[in-house]
Design brief:
mainly alpha, 434 Repressor (Amino-terminal Domain), 2 domains
């Protein structure tokens, strides 16, 4: 059996699972024995020691090891809700080529994103802007976030804004454009 191994941003995948479960980052830290002030740094990692990843798997009831294998795994965590994106692109009457050009990607790069490649929050924001929608509409597990904002849960909304600002600041500090942060292929 030939297995393709993928480059995964494990910190991002863990953060997405935390959001899907609707738990706070401090609660996540408590579950894995990590001080709340260190959770942010932990989630910024692109790789994690396997024994620590086992703890994370148990704490979040998800097999993160399955993300590293190119086989489709049930419950695969991905930032982008690909089916929703495809539907919106079709509803807007756009071709994949014209949509890719509008967000500064090649058709092959967009195809990789649509196939489940890792991507940045900045790219999701750029896609949403090009489609004239809010980024939260393209993010998996974000429907609860959108509903909470609609019901007036300002704390969650402020956290989303802070994450966007942090993402932008990190790109500026690194001297990278949003495009350079896209991990495709």
């Amino acid at each position: 059996m030939k297995v393709q191994y993928l480059k995964i941003n494990i910190g991002l995948a863990i953060e997405q699972r935390i959001n899907e479960l609707g738990i706070s980052k401090s609660e996540f830290g408590r579950r894995i024995g990590l001080a709340s002030q260190n959770v942010k740094k932990f989630l910024e990692r692109e790789s994690i020691d396997s024994s620590k990843l086992v703890e994370v798997c148990q704490a979040l009831d998800y097999d993160f090891f399955s993300l590293y294998v190119g086989k489709t795994c049930e419950g695969n965590t991905s930032l982008l809700n690909v089916n929703r994106l495809k539907t919106i692109i079709l509803d807007k009457g756009l071709s994949n080529i014209s949509f890719a050009a509008s967000i500064g990607l090649s058709r092959n790069e967009l195809d990789a994103v649509l196939a489940g490649s890792d991507l940045s929050l900045g790219l999701v924001e750029k896609m949403a802007e090009a489609l004239g929608i809010k980024p939260v509409e393209l993010i998996n597990g974000a429907s609860a976030t959108a509903e909470a904002v609609a019901k007036g849960d300002q704390a969650m909304y402020e956290e989303l804004i802070a994450l966007r600002a942090e993402n932008k600041l990190l790109r500026e500090i690194q001297g990278l454009s949003a495009r350079n942060q896209v991990h495709v292929g």
